[in-house]
Amino acid sequence: MLVLASRSPQRRAILAQLGIEFEAVPVDVDELTAGDPIQVARDNALAKALAGARLRPGATVIGVDTIVVCDDAILGKPPSAEVAAAMLRRLSGRTHEVISGLAMIFSGNPQVVHEVTKVTFREVPEDLLQRYVQTGEWSGRAGGYAIQEQGAALVRCISGDYLNVVGLPASRMLDLDLRLMLSQS
Asked: If 0-12 CB within 10 Å is exposed, 13-18 middle and 19+ buried, where does residue 124 land?
């Protein structure tokens, strides 16, 4: 059985939607917040997978970290409504990247990949932005929004993997899973 080293309800929902049996194991790691965005996402994902593997030795474990990047700056999870509003103003009318690192440990062997999806926000009027912030959806969300909920109203278009923006690059995970299993045969 697959072990998901995460507290994320979005990641659990994606795995369930795909019909993948898994056990969710919350892990606590000190996440990197600065540096090359792709490397930050990959390193954080690996740290989560390794923490999960320590809790479930011998299991196939995945760890995922999703970040939002605008102008080479990592926009993490906003600590307050004010910071969320500032992030959303920064993203308004612009294209940013959602980067997920995904680490899978299979037979003790860690493999790390990443996925990048471009998201373009519409010009968001201040009243809509304030209404969105009042929903509280921004809490615990990189970049301060949730595309799969009311945050969809902020988005004009995406280029790439939608599920990556939700929080789990499922296509990359399935590709990696197949490669790892074939390499063991």
From this structure: buried
How many structural domains are present in the chain? 1
Reported as a single tens digit per residue, the pLDDT across 110-122 is: 999 999 999 999 9
In the chain, the amino acid numbered 146 is: A
Q: For residue 125, what is the DSSP state? A: -
Token duo for residue 77: 């999870």
Alpha helices in the chain (DSSP H): 9-17, 37-55, 81-91, 126-135, 162-166, 170-183
Give 134's strand partners.
none
Which domain CATH number covers 95?
A: 3.90.950.10
Catalytic residue among 65, 127, 175, 177: 65
In the residue annotation, 161 being an active-site residue is answered as no
In sequence order, the 6+-apart residues with CB closer than 8 A to the CB of 136 are none
| Residue 69 domain boundaries | 2-183
Distance between CA atoms of residues 59 and 126, nearest Å: 48
Mean local confidence (pLDDT), 162-174: 95
Residue appearing with tokens 């790439």: 160
pTM above 0.85, yes or no: yes
